[in-house]
Amino acid sequence: MLSRDVFRVLAAGAIWRLARTALAGRVLVRALGARSEDARVMAGMLLTRSGRTALPLLREAMARHENLPTVITIVGSIGDHSLEPELRRFASDSDPQVARAARDSLRILGAEGA
Predict the structure, then answer these.
(1) 3 near 36, Cβ under 8 Å?
(2) In this structure, which of 75, 80, 109, 114 has its CB flanked by the most CB atoms within 10 Å?
Protein backbone atom coordinates (compact mmCIF):
# COMPACT_ATOMS: atom_id res chain seq x y z
CA MET A 1 0.00 0.00 0.00
CA LEU A 2 1.32 3.43 -0.93
CA SER A 3 1.87 5.96 1.80
CA ARG A 4 0.35 9.40 1.48
CA ASP A 5 3.83 10.83 0.86
CA VAL A 6 4.49 8.39 -1.99
CA PHE A 7 1.11 9.07 -3.55
CA ARG A 8 1.75 12.82 -3.34
CA VAL A 9 5.15 12.40 -5.04
CA LEU A 10 3.65 10.26 -7.79
CA ALA A 11 0.91 12.80 -8.45
CA ALA A 12 3.29 15.76 -8.36
CA GLY A 13 5.73 13.86 -10.58
CA ALA A 14 3.05 13.26 -13.19
CA ILE A 15 2.03 16.91 -13.18
CA TRP A 16 5.69 18.00 -13.27
CA ARG A 17 6.41 15.77 -16.28
CA LEU A 18 3.34 16.96 -18.18
CA ALA A 19 3.07 20.65 -17.31
CA ARG A 20 6.33 21.60 -15.57
CA THR A 21 4.40 23.71 -13.10
CA ALA A 22 6.50 25.25 -10.34
CA LEU A 23 3.96 24.14 -7.74
CA ALA A 24 4.37 20.47 -8.67
CA GLY A 25 8.14 20.88 -8.70
CA ARG A 26 8.09 22.45 -5.24
CA VAL A 27 6.08 19.47 -3.96
CA LEU A 28 8.91 17.26 -5.22
CA VAL A 29 11.55 19.43 -3.53
CA ARG A 30 9.61 19.34 -0.24
CA ALA A 31 9.28 15.56 -0.57
CA LEU A 32 13.07 15.27 -0.39
CA GLY A 33 12.52 15.68 3.36
CA ALA A 34 9.54 13.32 3.65
CA ARG A 35 9.33 10.68 6.37
CA SER A 36 8.98 7.97 3.77
CA GLU A 37 12.27 6.87 2.26
CA ASP A 38 10.40 5.74 -0.85
CA ALA A 39 8.95 9.24 -1.29
CA ARG A 40 12.38 10.84 -0.81
CA VAL A 41 14.04 8.53 -3.33
CA MET A 42 11.28 8.94 -5.92
CA ALA A 43 11.29 12.73 -5.59
CA GLY A 44 15.07 12.79 -5.99
CA MET A 45 14.94 10.58 -9.05
CA LEU A 46 12.23 12.67 -10.68
CA LEU A 47 14.12 15.91 -10.11
CA THR A 48 17.42 14.43 -11.30
CA ARG A 49 15.82 13.01 -14.44
CA SER A 50 14.34 16.44 -15.15
CA GLY A 51 17.85 17.74 -15.61
CA ARG A 52 18.29 21.45 -16.26
CA THR A 53 14.52 21.98 -16.14
CA ALA A 54 14.71 21.44 -12.38
CA LEU A 55 17.55 23.91 -11.81
CA PRO A 56 15.36 26.96 -11.02
CA LEU A 57 13.54 24.93 -8.35
CA LEU A 58 16.81 23.62 -6.95
CA ARG A 59 18.32 27.12 -6.91
CA GLU A 60 15.25 28.32 -5.01
CA ALA A 61 15.55 25.43 -2.54
CA MET A 62 19.24 26.23 -1.99
CA ALA A 63 18.41 29.88 -1.30
CA ARG A 64 15.82 28.76 1.28
CA HIS A 65 18.20 26.12 2.73
CA GLU A 66 15.55 23.49 2.09
CA ASN A 67 16.72 19.87 2.22
CA LEU A 68 20.20 21.14 1.43
CA PRO A 69 22.35 17.99 1.37
CA THR A 70 19.95 16.23 -0.97
CA VAL A 71 19.30 19.27 -3.15
CA ILE A 72 23.04 19.88 -3.49
CA THR A 73 23.61 16.24 -4.41
CA ILE A 74 20.94 16.46 -7.12
CA VAL A 75 22.54 19.63 -8.49
CA GLY A 76 25.82 17.77 -8.83
CA SER A 77 24.12 14.78 -10.43
CA ILE A 78 22.51 16.98 -13.06
CA GLY A 79 25.99 18.09 -14.04
CA ASP A 80 25.27 21.72 -14.88
CA HIS A 81 27.99 24.19 -13.89
CA SER A 82 25.63 27.17 -13.51
CA LEU A 83 25.21 26.57 -9.76
CA GLU A 84 28.92 26.09 -9.13
CA PRO A 85 29.32 29.43 -7.27
CA GLU A 86 26.58 28.41 -4.82
CA LEU A 87 28.15 24.97 -4.39
CA ARG A 88 31.49 26.61 -3.58
CA ARG A 89 29.85 28.69 -0.85
CA PHE A 90 28.20 25.62 0.64
CA ALA A 91 31.48 23.67 0.56
CA SER A 92 32.55 25.53 3.71
CA ASP A 93 29.15 25.42 5.42
CA SER A 94 29.11 24.86 9.18
CA ASP A 95 26.83 21.82 8.71
CA PRO A 96 29.19 18.94 7.83
CA GLN A 97 26.52 17.15 5.75
CA VAL A 98 25.94 20.25 3.63
CA ALA A 99 29.66 20.90 3.21
CA ARG A 100 30.33 17.26 2.25
CA ALA A 101 27.47 17.24 -0.28
CA ALA A 102 28.78 20.46 -1.85
CA ARG A 103 32.35 19.15 -2.08
CA ASP A 104 31.08 15.88 -3.59
CA SER A 105 29.00 17.79 -6.14
CA LEU A 106 31.96 19.97 -7.07
CA ARG A 107 34.05 16.82 -7.50
CA ILE A 108 31.39 15.36 -9.80
CA LEU A 109 31.44 18.57 -11.81
CA GLY A 110 35.22 18.36 -11.98
CA ALA A 111 35.47 21.75 -10.32
CA GLU A 112 36.83 20.89 -6.88
CA GLY A 113 40.19 22.55 -7.43
CA ALA A 114 39.21 25.22 -9.94
Answers:
(1) yes
(2) 75
